[in-house]
Amino acid sequence: MTPKTILINRISIRGKxxxxxxxxxxxxxxxxxxxxxxxxxNPLNLYAVHNEQDVAIDLVKMQISTLYIKxxxxxxxxxxxxxxxxxxxxxxxxxxxxxx
Length: 100
What we know:
By secondary structure, the chain is an alpha+beta fold. It has one domain (4-95). It contains two helices and four strands. The chain has helices at residues 53-72, 81-95, and strands at residues 4-13, 16-31, 36-41, 46-50.
């Protein structure tokens, strides 16, 4: 089946709904044979597979939220260079382009 794209405008971080400055694009690929949905957020190489599309979408949102909590709330001095780059990407996802 043909992949489709949906725009995500909000995610939950620490129980608080956060409106994203710019919507992010999730790719959804239905697998009719296995009755699953593959949902991906390619910029961070995140994905989830579930038999319900909405659940798969929520799982990818939860991955973004978990990474945000882990890397953005951590003291930047404790992060490696790769982790700092991921941190910047996560901040940009939520707040748009941010200079550090």
